[in-house]
Specification:
Elements lengths: L6 E8 L2 E12 L5 E8 L10 H9 L5 E5 L3 E7 L6 E4 L23
Antiparallel strand pairs: 1-2, 1-5, 2-3, 2-6, 3-4
Length: 113
């Protein structure tokens, strides 16, 4: 009997968008307040249609051994049996019923804003 490897779907906020990526390992980072993601998986199924958001993610994470995501940016982490396509969604996408912690943009060093 073959044992399936554990895979995770991670949804997080990044630069005003929601990233959905798949990975084989997730652990609490040694950096305080961060989640460490290793072995990022991209859809290896060949198709004639190329998804530009997945291609952008592939190039963005090309050569990345591990990445550290701030805990407050994490929306959700799911353990999944099969991987799908990684994607980038608009942050105002209403297809989710999960409310995340508020993220406040930096005030560019101006304490009066």
């Amino acid at each position: 009997m073959t044992e399936k490897s554990t895979q995770y779907l991670i949804k997080f906020h990044n630069q005003g968008k929601v990233y959905e990526i798949y990975a084989k390992q997730i652990v609490q980072s040694e950096l305080f307040g961060f989640i460490q993601i290793e072995d990022i998986i991209f859809d290896s199924k060949s198709s004639l249609v190329v998804d530009p958001s997945e291609e952008h993610l592939k190039s963005e994470f090309d050569g990345v051994k591990r990445t550290h995501i701030p805990m407050q940016a994490i929306i959700r982490i799911d353990e999944v049996e099969e991987t799908g396509q990684s994607k980038i969604l608009a942050a105002d996408d209403k297809t989710t019923n999960v409310t995340n912690f508020p993220i406040f943009p930096p005030n560019n060093g101006n304490p009066n804003k």
